[in-house]
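P.,

For your records, the input lines for the assembly:
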Amino acid sequence: MNRYEPPAALHDTATDRLAAPMGRRIDRQAPRRFQFEGTPYAGYAGDTLASALIANGRYLLSRSFKYHRPRGPLTLAGQDANTLVQLPDEPNVLADTQPLTEGLSVYGQNYAGSLDADRDMKLGALAKFMPVGFYYRAFYKPKGVWKYWEPLIRKKAGLGVFDLDADAGYHDKAYLFADVAVVGSGPAGLKAALTAADGGARVLLIEQEPELGGALTYARFATDTAPSERLLDDLVAEVEAHDNIRLLCNATCNGWFKDHYLPVIQGRRLYKVRAKACIVASGAFDQPAIFRNNDLPGIMLASAAQRLMRHYAIKPGQRAVVLTGNDDGYLAALDLVEQGVEVAALVDMRAAPNETKLGDAVEAQGIARYREHTIFEAHHAKAHHRVTGVELRPIAGRGEVGEARTDIACDVVCMSAGYMPAYQLLCQAGGKLSYCDETAQFAISGLPKRLYVAGSANGFHALDRVVHDGARAATQALRDLGHQVDVLDAPKGALEQVNYPWPMFAHPKGKEFVDFDEDLQIADIINATRHGYRDVQLVKRFSTVGMGPSQGRHSALPTARLVAAATERSVSDTGVTTARPPFAAETLAHLAGRHFDPFRQTPMHRRHVELGAHMMPAGDWQRPAYYPSRAGTLERLRCQQEEARHVREKVGIIDVSTLGGIEVRGPDAAEFINRIYTFGFLKQPIGRTRYAAMTNEQGVVIDDGVSCRLAEDHFYVTATTSGVGRVYQSMLQWNAQWRLDVDIANVTSAYAAVNVAGPLARQLLERVCTGVDLSAEAFPYLGLREGFIGEAPAYLLRVGFVGELGFELHVPSRYGEYLWDTLMEAGKDLELRPFGVEAQRLLRLEKGHVIIGQDTDGMSHPFEINMGWAVNRTKPFFVGRRAVDILHSHPPLRRLVGFRLPSTSAKPLEGHLVLEGERISGNVTSCEYSPTLDAIIGLAYAAPERGEPGQRITIRTEGGETVTADVVALPFFDPDNQRQEL
Amino acid sequence: MPHAIFTAKRTPLTPTLKADDDVVHLNGYTLAAATPDAANARRGQLDRCALLDASALPRLGLRGPNAAQALIQQGYCLPERPNTASFQPEGSLIAQLSASEFLLLGAPSLTPSPWADSEQPLRPGPGCYLLPRQDTHGWLALTGHCVAEVMAKLCGVDLSPAAFPVGGVAQTSVARINAIVINASTASRPCFYLLMDSASATYLWSVLEDAIDEFDGARLGLMDYLAIAG
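Structure tokens returned:
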């Protein structure tokens, strides 16, 4: 056997680069040092990690998933899993797209021992005991055995190691808008972008690689390279200079969603592109041939070898064999020779090239040509680290070889078996792939409106036709966008034959890899069909073909062919596996990056923070839950009880700016309010407030507040903090039907409000309020006045939510902070103290006041929660009236009751169940310890027969313990309401 | 406590001022005085990317079937259709938000506005209702050549000059809250006004600060802005 033995000193440093113009991506003046597996190396800025390692003679970059076979670059374009490596803080990074940076330290992954000597490689010897789908059947019997297998399998599964402490860094999102988005900047994409931009469209050109040009930057299109080089220079210069074109390089369009909504990842940003039309010029993926050991390091696609030379100025090897099923292999062989690589053989699976001159050209270079031959097996040294030679056989039939054997030594094999269009985005959009048995190629049809395909993704490969097709797609887009343009015809003539129909040659010893990611061989796919999986989608799920990082870019076509043959159908019948977004791997950081979490703050927010309040969310609002206790601590119960006691004994102030506010103005304002709320409002006097409960059409109480009549035709109504949006929406919706002459305005943010509550409240207000007689006689409970607090115009409402003498002051929000400052300053000697939401909840509970949403649920009607008094049943209509009547006529199912427990009892929590024997009869909705009453008090739904004072209810508390509580009359405190009406 | 230096009116983003800071009063609000030097640098910042709180400038809303007529009678020039705005000769701006709703934004000017303390000059009659936009809405301004790109980080509506010309009004979602975006650019300087729920002004300010960072953006005081642009 011929085996290639490289010279000992080969590729010792990064200085063995080809001369310019090779190496368009690297900056030879900017060396970069890095480490791989602890060994120092050098490369250049512009290198990828993989190119720099290859420049240093290192092809083995990773180990395969299942058999731990050594792997090296296959595509050099980030389209395969052979270059997955471990960065310090990120696993599974593609070395062929990872830019080389100074000081980068990288390791291989998925090995036991070292990358070069992986002990797990012995798994390959057990391959025949691990056929496709074996793990679906092997580890579940006998019953219970999985728990023993699972730790072992989990240890072996997976690739890199995730650093849980890693900081992903700042990621964000942004929208981009375009008339035409062009995906791919190869010759078709460049021409499409230029044509569309010249036609007046705003164009976004998205390119996955660092520079424009696509295949023009690395591939060879003819023996004479000058025309394609000029075309590249001209197109790129025009595109870069065009005002109508925005360029995004290093950007991956990761999906197509309805109406041309395209997620595009560039660096740490996810762009959400909105385009009116989209041209996919994504190119085609070079396809590997399938033969024994086709995965050895040093065996790569012909395009990968060309990328090494033109992008990075690297000789792929010293002695090459080119295996081809199309003319591009000939062109690649010419490239290799021109760059000093000895091409030991050009192995053409066909009888002759399409372009006969190419055969003459390679022979003129002294390259031995083998026609209708294939590589049957690749050879390697003991450790499999690099291909050392190939065994050629003549092709005797589809997938069959003859006996004559030729061995050729080499250190690199370049394959070009055909092309698969990069159809992923198009299929995501609903495009249908059809296979032509004659050309062995796919075509796509059925694309949605304003989505176009161009270039090699559309089946064209000759450069002039590719360029023409790009222009054709752009003219179609322009026309469909309403521009005046003559639409070009499609390139004329039959499609070029670029695919060899059956580049797969089974070997008796196997290891002919169809799917490199999942270590799947020809027999694995065929065996899957023998298990009865005829559908290619089921074959995928059973065998996992196409489910690895490269997502079937190189395995979909051979799998379709193998399944079709094994099931005696055509590839048109079997189709290929579905392509779903994302096109390429995307990080969670991209999806999660820079999320928006809106919050709302009252005009007094800064003061709460200055006072050290513990803030809590209330919907979008940030509210003070409680302020530090006298001891300076922030213990919830202590603070709550101190604040509540202070309100009962002196005076407190709470920021209630979050209360909803709605103004209803106009001649029909009273009629409107009367229809919306359950009480009667037609006769509500000006200068008075009235409790307002709102039911929906099902009779369920959905909100409450206070109606303030400011004028005959002007109401200001409050709503709950979380409910005002719904109330406002509901009001607009109803009046769309009623057509009453009113204006309805949500003025929640227009007013800042505080509740001044406690026995000293009036005394405090008398110091700051002008324009209002604050005496009990002149301004009684439920009264409404307009006056001033200092300089601020204010509505003053006599309210009693917390059961003390109280004034709610509403001022334009621009005066909110001033209102707070004024009151705090004036109340110093009265020991005025702010109180938070927690104290307010306790105080209102002592008064038995219901909080809608906390003490009610989606079924609570007014009579169930003892609010029958708030329903005017003499008026002809209010929203929900009919339902309330019906509900009230039925026997009650439950009732909201007040209960009381000794202070030493276990304290029920909100949500704890009320039991009637074994039956659940209700639940606790509110419960607190009341320092005023020295008892635990609460509200709960209970069976109706337990609703009267003197009854007892059983509550199951934390840990399952039950307590028996006394049902008591409400309110718990100040039953005659003397305090609030002072 | 530094409260004493403030007037009674405060914007949602009233800055923390020290007792010895130079302050001025505009429309009843206390603002940091314009910094006397480096006007060119500030002008450059405005051209590049700047964010400022314009909430001390007057604004109000007018709505109802007779709102348009009321404004015309007052001598205002109305936009041609909803979601557009028209500049008034004295520098104020009227944005039409629907067939029967208008938003009036006072001129960015050092001259105290007649709307500052009273909305009565508009004398709304029947079928015409004043809306308290001075209090319901905060007003931010974003200036510089990158305004559309900044907004593209926050808003799903195309606000590029081609799609959103001067005088355009977008009532949309910005960073997940409702906002009115108005293209108030001049011939020499792109400028967007953003009006949002005043309780959300702090939130949107923080979001915008983050967004402009990429464009070398900076905060600018309203008085500095008015000294240059007013």
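Two observations worth noting. Residues 8-14 of chain A have pLDDT under 50 and may be disordered. The interface with chain B takes residues 172-177, 202, 272, 274, 594, 596-603, 605, 620-621, 657, 665-666, 743, 745, 747-751, 790-792, 812-818, 821 of chain A (CB under 8 Å).

Regards
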